[in-house]
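**Fold tokens**
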Amino acid sequence: MNSKKTENTNATKTENTKANKIMTIIGVILCVILIPILAVNITLIIKSQTNKDEVPKIGGYCPLIVLTGSMEPEISDGDLIIVKQIDGKDVQVKDVIAFFDPESTSNSILTHRVIEVIDEDGKLSFRTKGDANNTEDRMAVSEEKLVGIYKSRIPGAGNIAMFM
């Protein structure tokens, strides 16, 4: 009877030890993932507070949350997109760019596709259109309003960021 009890105790200890190891590994993985995300978020928050007229960037890249479906199906509302800072002369027709809305006074940022690059005496501007929109944007975007070029997206991550 005692040997059976000892076997059960040893089996329970072994299971507990395995469970503890698995939980430790999961905890370490979460820390490795979440600590850099926290550091990036803190950096972006500090940069956004110190430079209110500028989109906060890290290494020339900035994350943006998409709030509308104007670029569906490629980019949906609620997506988190990564935009790379780029010189206006490198923008080409069919590129998707992020820019300060030329019609807005609130510094809102739009992400639309370039349908025409306009060069008037060395001053660049871009005619844009959302993929899901029926018409092109009313005003051309001057090079000074350019934030960057769309590089990638994380579907739905913008909703999570907004929730947090």
Q: What stands out?
A: The helical segments are 2-50, 157-163. The chain has a mean pLDDT of 81. The two ends are 55 Å apart (CA to CA).
